[in-house]
Amino acid sequence: MSALPAPARAAIADFTARHGRPPEFLARAPGRVNLIGEHTDYNDGFVLPLAIDRAVHIAFTPHDAPRVEVHALDQREHGMIDLTALARGGPAWLEYLRGCAVALRDAGHAPAGWHGSLAGDVPLGAGLSSSAAVELATLRAFATAGGLSWDAPAMAALGQRAENAWVGVNCGIMDQMISSAGEAGHALLIDCRSLALTPVPLPPEVVVVVMDTATRRGLMDSAYNERRAQCEAAARHFGVPALRDVTPARFDQEAAALDAVTRRRARHVVTENARTVRAAEALRRGDVATVGRLMDLSHESLRDDFAVSNAALDAIVAVARPQDGCLGARMTGAGFGGCAVALVERAAAGRFTETVREEYRAATGLDAALYVTTAQRGASVLARAEFEGR
Length: 390
Hints:
Largest sheet: 8 strands, mixed
Structural class: alpha+beta
Strand content: 15-25%
CATH architecture of the largest domain: 2-Layer Sandwich
Helix content: 40-55%
Number of helices: 12
Radius of gyration: 21 Å
């Protein structure tokens, strides 16, 4: 098992120590980073994320009792879900698992019982979708325990429902979709209206560098809801279901009647959708220089028009862009803290991470964490014979 990631080994060891035997299965679901396409998902637009090599793992064994018992190693807490009486209660992290059980029940499935140990290395609150990784790993466990076939888009929708309706976070579909349906070596162009998925290969000569600013989102709920309301107001002005339906040309012709703030918010979404589609086309051609330029433009739009960046995100992007081998950099995620992302020539990645870390510390006094990643596959499950052989 030495080839397994450290959190997977920890989950297996914890389960074995608690139950006196190894788990029957190991479920895994990755976090994600979004190359481009920010705040477009809830506007029915396009996003271009990839699944990263940090994930949530659940070592588990199904049982016949109608309950789920889980020990969360990172929280050092134990939780139990009564599948016959799905009501809130217990530690906050458990609500993501319980929400998945509720979503399965509401979709007509009978959630099956299991007990397990959960561990992960997706940083919390960094904009890398740790919550979606928990949801999709949980759904993988429920699907295995209950003999359900794995339909990646359908399971992503259940994960989103768990977060929207049970946890109370009004997120779009992107995070759950890429955690569920990601493909190794590819970003995924997601049409957030039709849920059409188009794999886009990442050229082997580049890597993606996640740059954690060591700041976390503050006042995000109110700001997020405000941005959504502004986007919806702009869509009403244009007489369309969502800003996805407004072309840049139409925006230029008809946006003057909007108030200045709503106009800036809408301009970001309209231009970001266009940038995202162009970036996917450029990646297919192997034109990484164009992708980098579009990422730079995305950050400026998020900073100036959508106003969701912060000083730390701006600082790390400013430090990253001039480095040798950096093709482009931008904030990623909802904003107001968390992570930025850079597209970097593979040969320059080592020096890039060292220099950015040093210069960011000098500029801000903060210690950034930088992760070099390539695109990974989405949620998966291994039987004992498979993971014990690794």
